[in-house]
Amino acid sequence: MDKEELNEHKVAEGVYGFRTAIANIAIVGGCGDSRDEWVIVDAGVPFSGPFIKRCAERVMGKGKKPIAIVLTHGHFDHVGGLKYLLNQWDIPVYAHKEELPFLTGEKNYLPPDPSVGMGLMSLLSPLYPRKAINLGERVRELPENGTIPEMPDWRYIHTPGHTQGHISLFRDTDKLIIVGDAFITVKQESALAVLNQTKEIHGPPAYFTPDWETAEVSIRKLHALQPRIALTGHGKPMAGSELTAGINKLVEEYDHIVVPKHGRYVH
Ligand SMILES: [Zn+2]
Ligand SMILES: [Zn+2]
What we know:
Layout: H1 3-9, E1 10-12, E2 15-20, E3 23-31, E4 37-41, H2 49-60, E5 68-70, H3 76-79, H4 82-88, E6 93-95, H5 120-123, E7 139-141, E8 154-158, E9 167-171, E10 176-180, H6 191-196, H7 212-224, E11 229-232, E12 238-239, H8 240-252, H9 254-258
Helix pairs in contact: 2-4, 7-8
One zinc ion binds at residues 73, 75, 162, 181, 205, 208.
């Protein structure tokens, strides 16, 4: 990857975003005590491990390894490359306490709701894996005070609703947010929008969101931070007035534009 190509993936200083088929990952520099280290946020769709490793080596240099992986949540399209990556690198994985049962084989996610969102991705959703993976001792609980080990410039915001232990990562210095699926910038229910990565702000992927009330509280938390740049779990990065207008709209018209009209988890 040459410099120009790399710049296309640069979201902000030290932060790079890459898309694994349908889901994004982030490579974040400026980590560790020395600020020379780096961390990977999320681990992509199944079989994306080798691709993620290649991306990381292109950004950070061949033979270099991250000091940790941080998960926004444990859905299959965010943990798919983990097994491969953890075989390559002996590093810890951090996740929120309430997400741990889904990462240690104890609990499976609730069944997806194919009736919401009106699109091919929704219709196919019963086929998506929802069985808990088991990371065993490799996964560690994030501290309760909001700090993230190895990421001194960052803190996490607990943003449940899409999953119980969902988090978003926030950097105060430039108000950059790595959102996960708390909100996204593509209509994930539509295969065509996903294919074209049509940029448009949306609530969490509907077929996989069981708690719309809590998801609203989480979006309000992120709105209150007034982020300037957002890298979401699905879709292209969004920044500036486009982002501000987008989040304002999500908050103001939540019941109309985010919550599905009916569905398994809509009350
Ligand atoms: Zn998800
Ligand atoms: Zn996702």
